[in-house]
Amino acid sequence: MDAFIKCAFLLMLPKMCVLSESHNSTMTDLNVFGTPLEICSFNPLTGWFRDGYCRTNHADQGVHVVCATMTKGFLAFTRDRGNDLSTRRGSFPGLNPGDRWCLCATRWREAMMANVAPLVVTKATHEKTLQVNSLQELLVNQVTRQHIMDIQKQEL
Question: What does DSSP assign to residue 122?
């Protein structure tokens, strides 16, 4: 009997693994270009699920889907609106210019309208942001290596 239970368990194991992976998998998550979503940041660890990806689900009322590289101007902007991302609190490390972080789609839009939007990492930004922000708006504020080097020079 024990051999039968072990055999049945081993036969079911691959199916259970597939089910558990698909529940929290990035395989079906797409970026704004319709290609697989890339990692935003592991350091600091970001994302609604704190898995490095800007993914969302029904419980994420802020819709944290825009992967952006923080700037001094944006961090001051969001702090002035009651969301201080610069200060360390509990397990939250506090962000610095140059850090990547998953932002709420509407907060990024608000910052864009105020001309302080942080630079977007488009391949790590979830397609759901397109319900709030156009691809053209995101592309104008896209991160390139040159942008990062320019920011670092200005803010040092």
Answer: G
Model pLDDT, residue 12: 42
Q: Measured on CA atoms in the order 76, 124, 40, 66, is the torsion positive or negative? A: positive
Single out the residue of 71, 63, 68 nearest to residue 123, CA to CA: 68
Contact 105, 66 (CB under 8 A): yes
Q: Provide the phi-psi class of 71: left if phi over 0, else alpha when psi is between -120 and 50, else beta.
A: beta
Alpha helix segments (H runs only) across the chain: 2-23, 72-80, 105-113, 135-140, 145-155
44-49 long-range contacts, Cβ below 8 Å, gap at least 24? Answer: 44/93, 44/95, 44/99, 44/101, 46/100, 46/101, 46/102, 47/102, 48/102, 49/24
| 21-67 pLDDT, tens digit each | 334 555 689 999 999 999 999 999 999 999 999 999 999 999 999 99
Contact 120, 65 (CB under 8 A): no
Residues in the chain: 156
- The DSSP bridge partners found for residue 71 are none
